[in-house]
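Researcher: We're teaching a course module on how sequence relates to structure. For the next exercise, students receive a sequence and then see the predicted structure as tokens, so they can try to spot secondary structure elements on their own. Here is the exercise chain.
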Amino acid sequence: MAFDIAKEHLRKAGLEDRIYEFEVSSATVELAAQAVGCEPACIAKTLSFMVDQKAVLIVAAGDAKVDNHKYKEQFHTKAKMLSPDEVTELVGHSVGGVCPFGVKEGVSVYLDESLKRFDVVYPACGSASSAVKLTIPELETASGYLGWIDVCKGWGEDHI
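Model: And here is the predicted structure for the students to work with:
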């Protein structure tokens, strides 16, 4: 059902033809990269956090990791990831298919600077066996993001 909601969201944005459905799992960065046929860094993983009792999604490059210090500077609280049950309840997608498309009302979406080095990225599409090929401007539009933030480490030109 989450896949259908994400797919409908992308259809309304004119991006439905970019969706991939796989016979294999794409639930992790590595599996998604194998399914898509790209470098893991190009997978746009969606991380789910709790900030001020609300769900916050951060879409980051597949090779990026959350930097706790940067996160605390941005959100003024410690990074607290949602449990799998909280993700499903608050965001509307299950772990392995979390994406910024067709999320529940009140969920805030941010894009991490780690994505800006790519022309095309592949976020999930609501299921653990899907992805969608998007340019960065398309991701901005389709995600309804609130802004670009810099809360990750472990990526960059010296890591490519």
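Model: If you want an answer key for the exercise: Residues 2-12 form the longest helix (11 residues). Strands lie at 19-21, 43-51, 54-61, 65-66, 108-112, 120-123, 130-132, 134-135, 147-149, 152-153.
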